[in-house]
Amino acid sequence: MPQRRLTFYENRLNPQRDGYFPVPTPANHPELLRNEDRKLWLRTEEIFEFLKAGRFEHLQEILSIYHSARDGLLRATICTLLGDAATFDCFQQMREDLERMQRAARETRTQDAMYDYRDMALDFCDAFATWGLLDAVPVIVDHYLTLRSNKVTDIRLFPALLSTIMEREVSIISTEPPDDGLEEYLGLILQRHEALCSQYEGGNILLFQGKQSGVKSYANILAHDMDEAWHLKLELRRRFEASTGIDCHDMYVDKVFQPLAAARIAEALLNSPEAAKYKEGVRYFFGHEIPD
Predict the structure, then answer these.
(1) Would you say 130 and 239 are in contact if contact means Cβ atoms under 8 Å apart?
(2) What is the pTM of this model?
(3) Between the CA of residue 210 and those of 88, 229, 279, what are the distances in Å?
(4) How far, in Å, CA of 99 to CA of 12, rounded?
């Protein structure tokens, strides 16, 4: 018996469940009624529907909701959405907001300020990595080093984000180095970043696993080349589904990845006339080109 579809509030864009295809959340949902951010959740869901229709002018409002929200799950859901749908201007605003938070944390140096900064840095840098801009690599490194130098814990996601952008085969870049290996680690990142900048003639390029990203690239990996991307299967389902607006619910059954179903869905797009509209190096959300 198939599982019932979760609501937007229950699912939170989780790619192991209903991803970008939840059912609407009733305003009287019992759990939501007890949530202090109830109105912000419902407004976020409304903006989600606007973005699916290509109405990207609502991005600034959803970023404002992020800063107003107290519910960490709402903030994480918003950053998932921003990673897939934000414009260049929105990402630039996110970078500026995060830098202000970084300066405030450095000035106060209190534990609460540092951990609030860490939470925003994890959310925003995850969105930057989904964006995939090569020029975002030094930004992610800078926030990682600020947190590490201040002995902030639970920051192991940052190396994984750098790896997702820059390398096809997972290397030591993907894991935190020991203190005595930090200098060598940073040298490897710089070397890889410089090599990619040379290859693509600058940092204004969108990458996934060290190659130019795009809908057809995601589809080809899902259909033919999962061996070296198995660890990114959640990421691939999310990116492909968000970009195309194709329901990829069948890619997961009971939270277990279904490679044959994933290949079938991806191959169907590649063999359809719809594939011709997707340009490599260009981002889309539900088939709408994101205005960058």
Answers:
(1) yes
(2) 0.96
(3) 20, 12, 18
(4) 27
Tell me how far apart the alpha carbons of residues 125 and 137 are, in angstroms, rounded to a whole number.
9
What are the CA-CA distances from residue 144 to residues 5, 79, 219 (Å)? 37, 18, 31
- Pull the structure tokens for residue 100: 């202000």
Angular region, 43: left φ>0, alpha ψ -120 to 50, beta rest: alpha
Residues paired with residue 207 on neighbouring β-strands, in sequence order: 212
Which tens digits make up the pLDDT trace of 142-167? Answer: 999 999 999 999 999 999 999 999 99
Query: What are the CB-based long-range contacts (under 8 Å, 24+) for 255-263?
Result: 255/16, 255/17, 257/233, 259/226, 262/222, 262/223, 262/226, 262/233, 262/236, 262/237, 263/222, 263/223, 263/224
Contacts of 2 (CB under 8 A, 6+ apart): none
What does the domain layout of the chain look like in residue ranges? Answer: 1-86, 87-210, 214-289
Beta strand 207-208 with 288-289: parallel, antiparallel or unpaired? unpaired
Query: Please, what is the Cα angle at 235 between 131 and 20, to 5 degrees?
Result: 90
Find the angle CA(95)-CA(97)-CA(103) to the nearest 5 degrees.
100
Cα separation values, 271 from 93, 165, 200, 240, Å: 38, 27, 28, 15
Identify the residue whose tokens are 């997961």: 252
CA distance 168 to 190: 16
- Cite the DSSP H helix spans in 133-280: 137-149, 157-166, 182-199, 215-224, 233-244, 259-270
- What percent of the chain shows pLDDT beyond 70? 99
> 253 forms bridges with which residues in the sheet?
256
Please measure the distance between the N-terminal and C-terminal CA atoms of the chain and give it in whole angstroms.
43
Q: Is 223 helix (H, G, I), strand (E, B) or coil?
A: helix
Count Cβ atoms within 10 A of the Cβ of residue 106 and give its class: 0-12 exposed, 13-18 middle, 19 or more buried.
middle
